[in-house]
Amino acid sequence: MGTVEENNKELIRRQYEHYNQLEFDAAHEYFSDEMFSEHFTREQVKESEMMLHNAFPDLTLTIVDIIAEGDKVAFIVNGKGTHTGGPYFGIPATGKEVNAQNTYIDRIVDNKIVEGNGTASMLLLLQQLGVMPTIEEAVKAYNESKKE
């Protein structure tokens, strides 16, 4: 039997294996009934995940790095997929591939995720979908507007 930290990291790895195998009910079993996030309820987290996988049917999630200390696990997830499914936050399928990293910190008690917080690379994702300008495009547009 490993340390608490090793067990908690393995729990996160198993959860993401379920996501990649489209076993959402199994992945959600890792959430405690009282699980909360700073911005979302447990049900909202599940709905958001379903929307993401419906919009990007070939989505693969890869844990790039994972660190645990006590009851907390911090990890970086790389998500890669093609927007060929349903709408994503109202954006119809673009057919474009996205590749972005998100960072999470989960708190685990009794082998259940009781708290989850993270940051998503939404700007990069929206730029890759073509609905937001890249930094270069925004700077160019700004500079051109100053020439008038």
Structure description:
The longest helix has 17 residues, at 4-20. The chain has helices at 4-20, 24-28, 42-55, 122-129, 135-146, and strands at 31-37, 60-69, 72-82, 97-109, 112-119. A 5-stranded mixed β-sheet has the order 1-5-4-3-2. It has 5 helices and 5 strands. The protein is an alpha+beta fold.
Based on the model shown, name its key terms:
single chain; 148 residues; alpha+beta; Nuclear Transport Factor 2, Chain: A; five-stranded mixed sheet; elongated
List the helices and strands and how they pair.
Blueprint: H1 4-20, H2 24-28, E1 31-37, H3 42-55, E2 60-69, E3 72-82, E4 97-109, E5 112-119, H4 122-129, H5 135-146
Parallel strand pairs: 1-5
Antiparallel strand pairs: 2-3, 3-4, 4-5
Largest β sheet strand count, sense and barrel closure:
5 strands, mixed
Radius of gyration, Cα only, in angstroms?
18 Å
How many beta-strand elements?
5
Task: Tell me the strand percentage band.
Answer: 25-35%
Annotated CATH topology: Nuclear Transport Factor 2, Chain: A
Structural class: alpha+beta
- Shape-level CATH architecture: Roll
Element string (H = helix, E = strand) = HHEHEEEEHH
Question: Quick gist of this model?
Answer:
This protein is an alpha+beta fold and 148 residues long. The protein contains 5 helices and 5 strands, in the order ααβαββββαα. The chain has a single domain (4-146), classed as Nuclear Transport Factor 2, Chain: A, CATH 3.10.450.50.
